[in-house]
Specification:
By secondary structure, the chain is of the alpha+beta class. It has helices spanning about 5-15, 20-25, 40-45, 55-70, 125-130; strands at about 25-35, 50-55, 70-80, 85-95, 100-115, 115-125, 140, 150. Helix content is about 25%, strand content about 40%.
């Protein structure tokens, strides 16, 4: 297996709203993990997060993302292909359709293949930053440093 898997993953990402193409490129039980496995608090802000099953999940997930943000930039900076796995690393810039705030975030995407079909995709980004593009007010307090004080953001 060579750069064919990379090309297949690129085609999946270019056709996130085309179920017919996705069904050809993904296993019927493919898993897509968006940012976390299951985080109810984050799901209140970004409802598409969590674990999804089947190619039909991608149009739903990416459709929701486009309802919430306009994609201003998305670029893959590095690609690694090893055996039945492909990883993409890069950055994207989104603009909130509600607040108008822009966020640029790094991302990492790992895909596992069964033969020449995508069986698992995990997408990670700066969830704190991207969720912050929707912030409209208020402050949250954190205490992370064991020898420090609480901070307010």
């Amino acid at each position: 297996m060579s750069t064919n898997l990379t090309a297949i993953l690129q085609e999946v990402l270019q056709n996130t709203s085309n179920l017919k193409v996705l069904q050809q490129l993904m296993t019927p039980d493919a898993t897509y993990v968006s940012l976390n496995f299951d985080n109810p608090e984050l799901k209140k802000v970004m409802p598409w997060t969590g674990t999804h099953k089947g190619p039909q999940a991608l149009p739903e997930v990416f459709g929701a993302i486009q309802r919430y943000w306009k994609t201003l930039d998305f670029k893959v900076i590095d690609t690694i292909e090893q055996g039945s796995r492909v990883a993409f690393f890069g950055s994207f810039t989104y603009k909130s359709n509600v607040t108008g705030r822009e966020i640029t975030s790094p991302f990492a995407l790992l895909a596992r293949f069964e033969g020449d079909k995508v069986a698992h995709v995990q997408f990670l980004e700066d969830s704190y930053g991207t969720a912050g593009s929707f912030k409209t007010g208020g402050a949250t307090r954190f205490h992370s440093d064991p020898s420090g004080k609480e901070v307010e953001v």
